[in-house]
Design brief:
801 residues, alpha+beta, 5-stranded antiparallel sheet, 44% helix, elongated, disordered N terminus
Length: 801
Amino acid sequence: MPQRHIDTTEPMSFGHPPKSLDYESRIDQMFLERHAPPFFVVNASDEVSYLSGTLGPYVRPAKGALSARVEDLLLPELRSVVRPLVAQVRDEGGPKTEIAVITVDERSQWLRVTVDRLPFSDGDAMIVLQQVERVSEAQPAQTQSRTDPMRAAEEELSSLRRRLHSAEAGHAASEQELRSANEELLSMNEELQSSNEELETSREELQSINEELETINAELSENNAQLNEANSDLKNVLDSTDIPKLILAQGLIVRRFTRSARDLLHIDDRDVGRKVTDLKWRIDYPELADDVRQVEETLQVVDREITNSATDEYYQVRVRPYRSIDDRLDGCIITFFDVTRRKRAELELRESRERLAAALEAGELGVHVYYPETGTLIWDDRMREIWNVAEDREIDYDLFVDRIHPEDRGTTQKAVDAAFDPDGDGKYVAEYRVLQPDGPPKWVRADGSVRRQEGAPDRLVGTVRDVTERHEAEQRMQEYAARLELTYEVTGIGAWEWHMEGDVSEWTPNMFDILGAQRDAKPSLAMFSEFILDDDRDRVMGELEAAVESGELFDTQFQIRRGDGEERVLMAKGRAIYDRSGKPVSMVGINYDVTEDVEKEARRDLLTNELNHRVKNSLATIQSIASQTIRHAPDMATFKKSFLGRVRAISRAHDLLINGETTEVTVADMVATQVEPYASRADDKVETRGPRILLGPSVAHALGLVLHELATNASKYGALSSDAGRVEIKWEAMTRENTPAVRIVWREIGGPPVHPPETTGFGSVLMEETLSHSIGGHTEIDYNPDGIVAIIECVLRAGEE
């Protein structure tokens, strides 16, 4: 390919600004990359030194190691063409061209192979491959002559001649190369023969040296065996010791360590040869480098105490010099002694002494030691303070006895003698008074024990504390208990304490009186529960258990049957007591009789209900009276007079009931008062007959309620509700359970037919409960179709009257 000429003269301008050389280079580069045919360059050694990126389809490397030679890279069809052309160009010069036929993807292609020398590189040649098209054999007949086959054959023959010529030239070149290679091989063979003679001489020398080495090796093997034996002994010694040891070479380099040092120092065989300060130990030993330096400088042993913060262990570290066989300093050896038990014992002893001193100080205890053989007494400062003895005064047993109150000397001496008794337990406990020169005596408590020497009593060691305040508090408590007992007795409250373990209780005398129990009985919760009525027992026991579990106040009310058979109502209050672990251990509380309060409450509720009922009945009664009065009144004046009179009768009946709580009332007055508002005796609708009988206030009130209820019902539904109806009321004295009583018969005649009620109304309940619950009476009602008959029996006075 001819070289491109670049004109350096100023280009002509056609209305556009001139382009730079860089611009032209980019155009040339673009053409070469996109439109130039494939090419490559071979050097003087026939190796490819450069190839274009489009040469890929024509490259087929030979098997084996990668080579840059032309015959190892190109397709076989191209190798036979390129090699002769390159040789021809080098010999004759000028570009040479030849047509080659190759097969790519099973299709034949015709290539024009052009070879030209590179003028700027001696021996290098450029090979360009251009694809060409062969003239088709199917052209029209008018353009084809009969001489074309001859011409094609001649061209093909000419091509074959050129190839043959190129092959001969390549063969000649190869033959020349083979000759050169043969000469080189002959030269190398001569050199190898010379080297072989030298090697034979060296072999004899090496054989002699080998014999000498075998002798030295035998000596080294024996020395090595001795060294291995010594190392084995050293290893066994290091492994058998339970004391952690670490051997350091100079420069703090790890040389050796015992097996027990592995876990303590967190070290293994891989750390041998490393600097010990680079390792991460499990113990706190920041002074290691300073201690090693001090040992190397002074050759003196260094002892130090360190700790393992992870395990809270203590070690005594000893660093000593490590000397070689020729007595040279060659590092140091560090030994770790486990002193954890000793250190903890020392700490525990110190803490124990501190606790003892704190306990003695907090408890204000004095310590004394008594030697009976010599009579010697040793007191601390607190003992002298309690006895009020100066520090410079000598203490002996006589001083001790003289300061004890005369009334307590005998019992105190007996306690001392009992403690020194060989057959006793050696314990000494006593409480006595100590005389004071400037004040009242002090109460003290002494506790101690006898120490024995070879089985014989040797000394008495004990403590003394001032318990004067406790004795005074006990005296105050006794006085308070006496006052509390008197309070229980006056108020009738029974106090108790129940110990849950074993079900044991403690009762005050009033508890026995409330329950009607024998004073010599052994109180317990089981015994107490037997007095509770069956209807309330399970509920009370359940509330008691709930209060114990929750810690809340036990507060309940229940009925009991006393030992004499009387039923009463009690109120109980108590609270559980727990130990430090939260376990309930006991309960304290009180019981008191609320029977009268319960009865008063019941009467109050009954009166309230009666008031509500009576108000309703009063309104109904007034309405009934108004209705009956207006039916029988000829005019409004008569109605007004009759109606107001009956309303006043109702008012008087109420006044009589109210006054009946404080004055006595006859049966006749009570009957007249209750019946008059509904029908007077002048109307012949009510007939009363009976002796004069006085009623107590409670009985009169209760009986008035019953008669009022009968009269109200009679006026609304019974005999008094019709013109033909009437009521007979008769009473007589009688005896009820050996108690004066009255019997009243209420009989209704001529009224509307009577039908028994389907349900029991408030009036019937009121009549029954008023008499039976309040005064122990009885009411019996017969719903006869001709008229109601009611029989009332009750005592004349209630028990409290």
